[in-house]
Amino acid sequence: MKLLIDYQYFGTVNYYKMLFKFKHIEFEEYEHYQKGSFRNRTIIPGANGLIPLSVPLQNGRDQRALFKNIKIAYKENWVLQHTRALDACYMRAPFYEFYRDSLFAILTSQEEFLMDLDRKLIQWVLKMMKANLTIGLSTSYQKELATEFQDGRNQLLPNHTNSLGEQVQYAQVFEDRIGFQPNMSILDLLFCNGPSSAGLLKDSNSRF
Fold it and tell me: Which helix (H) or strand (E) holds 19?
């Protein structure tokens, strides 16, 4: 079975949990942009609660256009905001220093299109986790998929963050203050667990 799935900006733990259930992943390249998704946002746990991070878009979030044509807005220095938030939240994380420089190199690369940034970040996460997956890209939009494909598009949305059954459990930086926060950005798992992150994703139960 293969998986067709949408792009996400630092997808959630459950997003990568889904990816690790399949050997072949195909990313949707011909969908229309949908607001209210993780395509341009992520969530990390901070000392005083959850911190949403979003990538601003040229022409706003209400535009109707192919996702591949959505451009990032750099009028406000959101990259600095995101990198400062990551520094503030993860300087105490065991593996943050190991990943920081290569991650920040991508964030500061001034990608023009959101899809290109998302793709680079997904590739980076999978490389850091040494994922043994075959990656493909869709060539057209298909509402109905062939039988060998599982449709993972729009299955993981901000208002359904606790889907996919049993949550991946691990020690978080601020768990003693705000309790364990499930299904955060994959960065939270990676910075806290490093090379063992992939094993945690593979060992957890899933409905897929």
Answer: helix 13-19
